[in-house]
Design brief:
By secondary structure, this protein is of the alpha/beta class. It is 42% helix and 22% strand.
């Protein structure tokens, strides 16, 4: 059952139990400022309430919420102060009517007559009834269970058990919708199916990661899924997880489809099924197709065959496969959500997918290879898509935007480049003179790029460069895309600087540049082919790989994304970089040393060497 294209419920659901604040009405937005003002009125010396603190207390009963807030800002929570703040907040709540959250009316309209509905709230019943009346939601005739009926408040299950009893249903026949982990715990303990929505007490990431939540929604918006042969640059791909969005985009791009996707939940198997609904009518070709997907150091072989019961199976060395599937993949805790997405796609399209996992040096590259291969194999199953590939639309956005690298300025002391892709725009402006190097990264909220900003600034500082780098995600902002694009653009700027300096007075880097900072040593050269090697010293390649891959740094950066930065940087420079990486237990310190060494090696490589003036860099003419 799917209510209003928004809320997917299990078969057999007969009742809907809804929280009030943060689910039906936007009290979070209303109260964020009010709570701070009330505290200042009663305690003028109190500091501002951090939004994260307020949000973490939002789902508690009002007196408990105030006690937690006061403790969080270091104010003594006397009984008199808590009582006065509670009274004021309850009064303000009744004076001001919160907005009904988007999607709520549509869900309640469709639930009318199909499901029994009740509101289960940590607020007094009279207060809940007043809000329902003020917002017009009382017309849906929902029963109300409040926290003033002698029942323990959430996270105890009693209020949800009472809600199910009022509807004359077993809790297992009811779905609860909650905005907080506290409320989700109560509903789970009661035995309900639990849908979380990140419009109140907790974030989507927290709800999605919780064992108490069966499906998490960013918001209760309608899902939009449109996929058809067309201009592959005509795309909108949004889900609450950037890596999942990126994998869907891989399928669309390789199949040769324009895509319009807005998918607000983590029901990834259902997303696969929705994509299958769009693709199945296009599969008018042979019954079987094979493709090999690859990107950088990831590879996979894909076979798709028509089947009565669609399914997906991954094959390979059992130990490697178990490690691979268990690895964190950007914001995903493991590869299982990606298997769910493929399972929904194959079942919906009536396909059996056999995926032979190949190279697994970096989990996200292998997953990219898998989804690229799936997209290619789907096209092979479709005469329509093959015909479109042969005579389809020209990519209009590519022609209009001039995708690729553009050099906007170059001299022996400065260089500026802009790199535009179908997903992003990145620019770098370098000057070989002391001064700050600003790094501006505009991404989605789910991508934590702060640590990358600091490392890039460190690299520039050690290279003796000042200036600015700016990255903006225009379509997708998967974290490894950010890292690789930034690396490639910055590397291209240093290459242009090297070319100009080589012509004017020669550079050391036509031979080499080297730097060392414990525990690593690094060498850079423009004499060979584009090459990057992280060479283990005192341990094996496999040990170094497992040390790096799937690990999150203290800054929030994903370690393997820094591999992508280096790969992009070396590609942009058209140079060779060798890192000697001794055995260590300090991954954060090692990566900082790598970036510091890369900057130091560049400083040496760009140093004048008049004996090399005007010479191309070695017999391979890397800089020619």
């Amino acid at each position: 059952m799917v209510l209003a294209q928004r809320l997917r419920l299990p078969a057999g659901t007969r009742g809907l139990l809804l929280d009030l604040d943060g689910v039906l009405v936007d009290t979070l937005g209303l109260e964020a400022r009010v709570v701070d003002d009330l505290l200042r009125r009663h305690v003028p010396s109190a500091p501002p309430i951090p939004r994260d603190l307020f949000r973490s207390c939002f789902a508690l009963p009002i007196p408990e919420s105030w006690r937690a807030i006061l403790a969080g800002v270091g104010v003594e929570a006397s009984d008199d102060l808590v009582a006065a703040l509670t009274s004021d907040l309850e009064r303000v709540r009744l004076e001001r009517t919160p907005d009904v959250l988007p999607g709520v009316i549509e869900i309640l309209e469709e639930a009318r007559g199909a499901l029994a509905v009740a509101v289960v709230s940590n607020n007094p019943s009279e207060h809940v009834a007043a809000i329902l009346a003020a917002t017009g939601l009382d017309r849906f005739g929902m029963d109300v269970v409040g926290n003033d009926e002698g029942l323990p408040s959430k996270p105890a299950p009693d209020m949800y058990l009472e809600g199910a009893r009022r509807l004359d249903l077993a809790p297992g026949a009811c779905a609860a919708v909650e905005d907080s982990l506290l409320g989700a715990r109560a509903a789970r303990l009661a035995g309900c199916f639990v849908a979380g929505v990140a419009t109140g007490g907790d974030t989507f990431a927290a709800l999605s990661a919780s064992e108490d939540v069966d499906v998490a929604h960013e918001e209760l918006a309608a899902a939009i899924v449109g996929l058809a042969p067309g201009d592959v640059t005509d795309k909108r791909v949004w889900s609450p997880n950037e890596f999942v969005s990126h994998m869907v985009e891989h399928i669309a791009w390789r199949a040769g489809c324009a895509i319009d996707l807005a998918w607000p939940s983590d029901d990834w198997e259902a997303l696969g099924g929705a994509l299958a609904e769009q693709l199945a009518p296009l599969l008018d070709g042979p019954d079987r197709a094979w493709a090999m997907g690859l990107i950088d150091d990831g590879s996979a072989e894909i076979e798709l065959a028509r089947a009565d019961e669609g399914e997906v199976s991954l094959t390979g060395d059992p130990a490697v496969l178990a490690w691979f599937l268990g690895l964190r993949v950007e914001q995903l805790a493991s590869g299982e959500p990606l298997v769910e997405l493929l399972r929904g796609l194959t079942r919906g399209a009536g396909l059996r997918a056999t995926i032979a996992v190949g190279s697994v040096d970096d989990a996200h590259h292998t997953w990219e290879a898998i989804f690229r291969g799936v997209g290619l194999a789907l096209r092979e199953l479709s005469a329509t898509l093959m015909d479109h590939a042969a005579a389809g639309e020209v990519a209009r956005a590519a022609a209009a935007n001039g995708y690729g690298l553009r050099v906007t300025a170059k001299s022996a002391s400065s260089a500026a480049v802009v790199r535009t892709t179908a997903e992003s725009v990145c620019s770098a402006d370098l000057r070989l003179e002391p001064g700050p190097f600003a790094v501006e990264l505009t991404t989605s909220a789910s991508v934590d790029a702060g640590g990358l900003r600091e490392l890039v600034a460190l690299l520039a500082e050690r290279a003796g460069a000042s200036g600015r780098l700016a990255f903006e995600a225009t379509k997708l902002s998967s974290s490894h895309v950010v890292a690789e694009d930034v690396g490639m653009t910055l590397g291209a700027a240093f290459r242009e600087l090297a070319l100009a300096r080589m012509a004017e007075h020669g550079i050391e880097g036509a031979g080499w540049g080297v730097a060392a900072e414990p525990p690593v040593k690094l060498a850079l050269s423009w004499e060979g082919r584009k090459f990057l090697k992280l060479f283990p010293v005192g341990w094996t390649d496999a040990e170094l790989k497992r040390f790096r891959v799937g690990t999150t740094l203290a800054s929030g950066l994903f370690s393997e994304d820094l591999d992508d930065f280096l790969d992009g940087f070396v590609g942009g420079m058209h140079a060779s970089v060798m890192v000697h990486w001794p055995r260590t237990g300090d991954l954060d310190g090692s990566w900082r040393a790598v970036f510091a060494c890369l900057g130091g090696a560049l400083a040496m490589a760009l140093r004048p060497n008049r004996a090399r003036r005007g010479l191309i860099a070695g017999v391979k003419a890397t800089l020619a």
